[in-house]
């Protein structure tokens, strides 16, 4: 009788989702049965996100719940590095970090090692997506970020390997390919290549809007702007996700993400000018230490001026051990939430709909017109935006009727 493994991956992180998709293939290859029922499992693998304190708490709560079951628990993902003390206070079992996934072989590798398993391109977004991970790790040092400790140093695949994987996408039944990495724009720095070289080499079809560029730091967008704009002009790109985090140059400098804000704003606007159907996504942090009211308003203005299609808003979350957590001028949580509520009101007045996630408290915003177009056009990017705003597809028709009527 096969031993049963429950893999818990309640994340909104395509990188860790890919890790777990590969793990599931590996487990089956080694004779294990996968189950969604924790109570009947012999092993429970909990994948964790430590991006903000709220997502770390969700993972810790999941671990506490799993401890009530007589199964061996294995914790992986980012929390073992982003929230070390909090994890140790509740869990003394097996931990496997993102940078040492080969240690799964010590537990499950009866017939095959994890390294024997071919790349898995599936995503929980659906079978219309094909994910290509071009690199792992991050060379940046953002002052608020603890995730950098969890993903390790940059390791890039060769250009040839990435081209081969995109060619496999072109031969597949998938509609869209996600070009992915912990810091995709830093691709190649470790192997004397560049993201621009990679983007030019990848065989995307013109007028297909087939590629989604995920996790593109604004500094790399500007550095490789000519190559990115050229791909956009040829309608090769369907979506770019690029986290601005703030609209104030002073705050961005404090975040250690130095970039010319005016130049960045013009770049996003120009991309949209030459490729009107491209989806531009972003992230904003509200209430970073010492952020003034006027600097907060610069973030609001940046989003409204550039007309981003979709994005996330987070209240600043001080992660233990980061430079930002130790800064003076910390802003009270109540004030952060007041600013977020104002942000939501401004978005509502400018043609956006919003959804606040109950557990993480993240705010997701999306242009109303994008949600409505998702219902009338077979565009998986528009559908993805709608799914983030209204996750329950059985309720989407009613939701669209509501926003269309302006109720």
UniProtKB/TrEMBL annotation:
GO MF annotation terms: 4 iron, 4 sulfur cluster binding; metal ion binding; tRNA (N(6)-L-threonylcarbamoyladenosine(37)-C(2))-methylthiotransferase activity
The organism of origin for this protein: Lachnotalea glycerini
Domain MTTase N-terminal residue range list: 4-113
Source species taxonomy: Bacteria, Bacillati, Bacillota, Clostridia, Lachnospirales
SUPFAM superfamilies per the UniProt record, alphabetical: Radical SAM enzymes (SSF102114)
Cofactor section: [4Fe-4S] cluster
Highest taxon listed in the record's lineage: Bacteria
Radical SAM core domain boundaries: 124-353
Protein's name in the database: Radical SAM protein
InterPro entries: Elp3/MiaA/NifB-like_rSAM (IPR006638), Methylthiotransferase_CS (IPR020612), Methylthiotransferase_N (IPR013848), Methylthiotransferase_N_sf (IPR038135), rSAM (IPR007197), rSAM_horseshoe (IPR023404), rSAM_sf (IPR058240)
